[in-house]
Amino acid sequence: MSDAPRTIVVSYRLPLTLRRVGPGWRGERSAGGLATALGPVVRGGRGLWVGAAGDAVTDADPERAALLAQWEEREGFVAVEIPASVHGGFYDGFANGALWPLFHHFPTRFHVRPGDWEAYVEANRLFRDAVLARLRPGDRVWAHDYQLLLLPALLREARPDLAIGFFLHIPFPASDVFRVLPHREELLRGLLAADLLGFQTWGHAQHFRWSLLRLLGMDSGLDRVEREGRVTRIEAFPIGIAPEEFTRPLALPRVQARVTELRGRGDVRRVLAVDRLDYTKGIPERLRAFRLLLERHPEWRGRVTLIQVAVPSRERVSRYRELRREVSELVGEINGELGTPEWTPVVYLKRSVAREELVALYAAADVCWVSPLRDGMNLVAKEYVACQEHGHGVLLLSEQAGAAAEMGEALHVNPYDVEDSAETLLRALTLPEGERRERLAALRVRVHHGTAHAWAERFLGRLDEASAERALHGGPSVAPLSVPDLVAAWSAARRRLLLLDYDGTLTPLRPRPSDAAPDADLLELLRGLAADPRNTLAVVSGRPAAVLEPWLGAVEGLHLIAEHGAARRLPGQAWQPLRAGADAEWKPRVRPLLDAFTLRAPGSFVEEKPHALAWHYRLTEPQFGEWLARELLATLEGLLAATEVRAVPGNKVVEVRFAWAHKGEAARTLLAETGADLALAIGDDQTDEDLFAALRPEDWSVVVGRQASRARFHLPVPDAVRAVLRTLSAA
Ligand code: GDG
User: Fold this and answer.
1) 672 and 653 in one domain?
2) Contact 147, 15 (CB under 8 A)
3) Do 410 and 443 meet the contact criterion of CB atoms below 8 Å apart?
4) Structural domain for 632, as ranges
5) Residue 114 domain-assigned?
6) CATH number of the structural domain spanning residue 697
7) Which of 621, 639, 658 corresponds to the end of one domain?
8) What are the tens digits of pLDDT across the range 453-483?
9) Residue numbers of the chain with a pLDDT score lower than 70
């Protein structure tokens, strides 16, 4: 085996299933698009594929173990053995009883039993252990789908530098639906540990971002989110099929003969539907719509047949057994009520058909009716298009399928609307040939371009970029502060300048700014530092003078900088604006606008300072708050264009202030005035970055928190800042 970097694919199932045959075991290969796309990625020692090999294991079996060892050796397929005691709660329980229905927007089908979550966690650990046991330096991991949402975090914990990608094959739900889940925050954090998160559509990715904001209070950019100095990229990678897997069998003479046979006399149109028997696929809804078409347009009786292939699935789950009964009954009713000795309205194949037969059915169908109530992508839609090589078939596609986002030339339909579905089917049956050919040609270009292959390559390419970016810019550039080093430099310095931010640095952030008054301990600490004649101590805050003065004014020898540098107070002197003669006319124009936004957003409020106005929305529903903040910023940009005043976004606040009033300016002034040979600046938010930027390279800049920063060092929380200051004070 080579030492080259490898890809470790992890999915719930391996593309090979072990089945008991008599007393022994046999492996059956599955030929899905995923297996075809990822086969080359792992084959020939280039990687491994980690997953379950079949149903849960009940007892140890040496023959089974020997076969699995062979698979790993020859094919790179690593079997994860999930004990039956874990498998039930994990797979039938949390994965398919809770995640599957909720992610497909069926909150009423959602069901968790005690113990399901624990089993889910345990199963994810088994997958992690299987990966860790085989990991080599340089390997990258690509985890798949809703069964493994915790895997990225479990792996990251063990290997902070591992390149981890995750792809979700099913939709990500709207945040109001997602929040129904127990352990929802843990699931989000589980995913966030990946370097790259892939979704089927841009819409699903946006749903994920809203959940981050509403449940974890985390802001994200359109394609990335940052947490503790680490970036997770968020992107849409619509999955495709391997078209040659369909066109190759289609070219076989026996399949062509079958197509001709299926087309028959040509006076009955064939509408084809192919699904796993799953409630998300909208099979009963489709049958009802078909019945409605035949009732409303009796001229189509005898002239159209619906061929429904439905592959039984998850039969251990009672909801799936109910669905099977419901579909059988509906088919029976329609055929019984409307059928004739010459014509069966619905041909129902309640089983899996062979690949060649499926290809022939696709090629022979005049219409393919894909009508899931919700679907990550839906590959049937793409397979049909690939098989209509010379055809002019019509694709009828649910707008709730991920495929609809790409396949705009299909006839889209709302699968919940039975009347609309019936009418759209009628339209599909009567569409002029020219239009059918045009639509199909455009769809064919997409299907042949966006293949499963291209999908895998693009994902892995982006994963390499994302992990390289992490290696370059991630955590290491902001190192933890070494207190002994600082103390040594501090003791050696003749004149020291201390620039301290207040909120989030000397005290924790509070929901209401007025709750952050200094405690006795803090005042004592500041007094001690300010009393040393070698120190110049300045609190550099965004707060107005009217707040800083009563809170900190009594600390002898302390410099106060208010409103990010718009005003300052030298020890024992009066407050002064940093620049004289600044325009005061802007406030009466801006204030009414901020008041109007406050009325729209419950929990928000305006803070008025002598030189600035701030609109705070920390207590507003986050999604709504962000949306309003963006609108406010855009409105203010126009309003203030001709002035020296700017609107600046902050942490849950929009600040309107003079463009020149920033902490960097204040820091430069103090550095020049004091002639300090050591400067130490500590701060926690965006406005403190100006402070850090104003320092000299050898100075000490410290950011509180793990966010990306230009500071050289970081401390975790305000308590740690106080501890460091206490040490310095005693040094
Ligand atoms: C998940 C997401 C996403 C079906 N019947 C037969 C048969 N099939 C094959 C089809 C197709 C596959 O099964 C079904 O794929 P879908 O994409 O429709 O749906 P899920 O299984 O739910 O897959 C889905 C997908 O992951 C990929 O990311 O698109 O949204 O839910 O390939 O051809 N194949 C054969 N006989 C059958 O009777 N041979």
Assistant:
1) no
2) no
3) yes
4) 587-658
5) no
6) 3.40.50.1000
7) 658
8) 999 999 999 999 998 887 665 544 678 899 9
9) 1-4, 31-33, 55-59, 471-477, 580-583
Q: Are residues 698 and 598 in the same domain?
A: no
> What's the pLDDT at 266?
73
Rounded to the nearest whole angstrom, what is the distance from the C-alpha of residue 191 to the centroid of ligand 1? 24
> pLDDT digit string (tens) for 161-191?
999 999 999 999 999 999 999 999 999 999 9
Whether 501 sits among the annotated catalytic residues: the reply is: yes
Atom of ligand 1 minimally distant from the CA of 376 = 30
Distance between CA atoms of residues 560 and 537, nearest Å: 9
Domain shared by 40 and 161, yes or no: yes
pTM over 0.85: no
- 420 alpha-carbon distance from chain centroid: 33
Token duo for residue 409: 């030339």
* Span from the CA of 378 to the centroid of ligand 1 (angstroms): 7
The rounded distance, in Å, linking the Cα atoms of 652 and 388 is 53
In a mutational test of the pocket of ligand 1, which residue from 167, 200, 250, 274 has the highest number of ligand atoms less than 8 Å from its CB? 274
Ligand 1, atom 15, residue with closest C-alpha:
379
State whether 574 and 591 are in the same domain: no
Tokens of 425: 């089917």
* Strand runs labelled E in 403-517: 411-413, 479-480, 496-500
Does residue 100 form part of some domain? Answer: no
Which residue out of 139, 145, 275, 501 is catalytically annotated? 501
Ligand 1 environment, Cβ below 6 A: 32, 169-170, 239, 274, 276, 309, 311, 352-353, 355, 358, 375-380, 383
Tell me if 161 is assigned to some domain. Answer: yes
